[in-house]
Amino acid sequence: MSLLSVRDLTVKFAMRDNTVTALNQISFDLAKGERLGIVGESGAGKSITGFSLMNLLSRPGYIDSGQILFGGQDITQLSEAEMRKIRGNRMAMIFQDPMVTLNPVLTIGQQMVETLRAHRSLSKAEAEQIAILKLREVYIPSPEERLNQYPHELSGGMRQRIIIAMALLLDPELIIADEPTTALDVTIQADIMELLLELCQSNKVGLILITHDLGVVSQMTERTLVMYAGRLIEAGPTREIINDPQHPYTQGLINALPQQTLPGQRLKQIPGNMPSLTAIPTGCPFSPRCEYAVDHCRKILPEIVRYGQVEVACHEVSRLQNTNFEEASA
Amino acid sequence: MSSLSTNQPTPSRFSRLWNSNMGYSFRRNPVAIVSLAIFLIIAIASTLAPVLAPFDPYDPAQIDIMNSEYPPMWVDGADPQFFLGTDDQGRDLWSTILYGTRLSLLIGLCAVALQAFLGISIGLVAGYVGGRIDSLLMRLADIQLSFSTLMVAIIFLAVTQAMFGSETFNQYAIYFLIAVIGVAEWPQYARTVRATVLAEKKKEYIDSARVLGFGPIRIMVRHILPNSLSPIFVISTVQVANAIISEASLSFLGLGMPPSQPSLGSLISSGFDYIFSGSWWITAIPGVVLVVLVLVINLLGDWMRDVLNPKLYKG
């Protein structure tokens, strides 16, 4: 049985005079210990997905319909108190900027002990022992001293390690990492990602990695979801998606990587911008920017269809394959 | 960094405070040093009133009406056993001022504690919960603020005095004063706290606290409140000074502490009838004490506001 199973999740935002659909019928599964990447442009709904899984959408956002089955339990139906027992305990979340996610006025030790004691009946000394153990797991040097330090005394990379340690504190089954390295510099990014991968593998923790960095996704995850304007447009094994993307948008994303361009060449960016959620075009939301779009793309919303090893929401996927094949052979 | 701090013992609480930003700025600010010194002298002397005072002004057996209106020592016709002279009932003014200051400080601090408790709780809830509850609580605060403190206090105290009779009222005057000054000024706290909560609530560490599964009360009290403390400190000093003034005004108007148990205000009031008959000291000396007390508290508040305001940091 899968650890997490999201079925037709629709999230809406109640604005003053209309409601905006931020997530539209998202469905995916995550097996125990599996690592899943969610990629897409800014505003595609990646972070909203993360917050919905925690059932922590703040007003005016709300889950309109759909199910989130976590360990067989639909968490959209749970009360706030029941949900609090899951948050931090069975499901943890890591945010983007480690400089602001720790409480500035509490020491590292106070924050870790508080987290442990909120979920388990432990004495302060026992909780501190666990905290030290977890800090050691994330390779924090001399963890005993760190407990008495305040966040401002530590560097960004060190803080992100501490945040990872806090996420692992209660041995969760799932970690949602929302762009965990965007705010860090490149060398530390690699360290943190490697650490996260190692910890997830050794502890059999499921990981949902929300990012716009396809390179990170290809190293870290087994499966990938590509989102566009609040919809899932392609899902499948990461290797397939990176090596043989089916949806024109995914192809565009991969072609836009600087590595795909020769020195001196212009980057191959996708023309146009993602539509705002208040003005999503009819038919395929990507059609205005899609070079392969034909008439019915602009009229009919494509269903998600299975194509080879991936699922993709595109009418023209089989035609695309043929044209690509012809281009390649020609 | 780690190798440095390994070999050093953790500094004590006092030396940490002394070496902090605030400690540094304090040492560089003569006004703050003098103000704190004077405040501490007044506070300690009045707390130790039963030990320091040569007479007990609450004990009728020690009061002799024949001793009334002796001038202070440096004026002709003084009695050497009464250092600052005596009041109209023959009480030693020095002892009475000590006891009165104690009462004034006590009422001021307790009233501010009550204000802070009410204001902080209401402000936290309003800011954190938001929406209708926020609007409701803040409109209540606006209504409360549109009445002046003194007016509310006068009406309340006058009504209670009439209701309970002046004997019972005098017995419980101190509680009434604390309650009325405390309740009348809570919006000051509520508004400030709400404003800082609104700013803090948006920060990511609050999101991460929610993600860790903490409940709203724990997040409010343990995560938001400690991050909103600096404006609370600043208001508190100003409010203590205000509360002492309010208490003195009410007592001066005869709605506060009774003459048998005088605070600074009722002492000033009781001397006021004699000010033109030459006994200026009964009003003037407690008046000076009141002014100095309120002044040093305000100066300390000013200094604290400068230190705790991050916008005023120079470098």
TrEMBL record, chain A:
Keywords of this entry: ATP-binding, Cell membrane, Membrane, Nucleotide-binding, Transport
Entry GO MF terms: ATP binding; ATP hydrolysis activity
ABC transporter domain residues: 6-254
InterPro entries cross-referenced by the UniProt entry: AAA+_ATPase, ABC_Ni/Peptide_Import, ABC_transporter-like_ATP-bd, ABC_transporter-like_CS, Oligopep_ABC_C, P-loop_NTPase
A Pfam family it matches: ABC_tran
GO terms, biological process: peptide transport; transmembrane transport
GO cellular component: plasma membrane
Main localization, broad class: membrane
Membrane topology recorded in Swiss-Prot or TrEMBL: Peripheral membrane protein
SUPFAM superfamilies: P-loop containing nucleoside triphosphate hydrolases (SSF52540)
Localization: Cell inner membrane
NCBIfam families documented for this protein: oligo_HPY
Family designation: Belongs to the ABC transporter superfamily.
Protein name stated in the entry: Stage 0 sporulation protein KD
Protein encoded by which gene: oppD_1
TrEMBL record, chain B:
Membrane protein topology class: Multi-pass membrane protein
InterPro entries named in the record: BP-dependent_transpt_permease, MetI-like, MetI-like_sf, OppC_N
One annotated Gene Ontology cellular component of this protein: plasma membrane
Transmembrane segments: 31-53, 103-131, 143-163, 169-186, 232-258, 278-301
PROSITE patterns (alphabetical): ABC_TM1
Domain ABC transmembrane type-1: 101-301
Alphabetical GO biological process terms: transmembrane transport
Broad class of where this protein is predominantly found: membrane
Subcellular location as annotated: Cell membrane
Keyword terms, alphabetized: Cell membrane, Membrane, Transmembrane, Transmembrane helix, Transport
Pfam family, one: OppC_N
Homology family: Belongs to the binding-protein-dependent transport system permease family.
The protein's name in its UniProt record: Dipeptide transport system permease protein DppC
Organism: Phaeobacter italicus
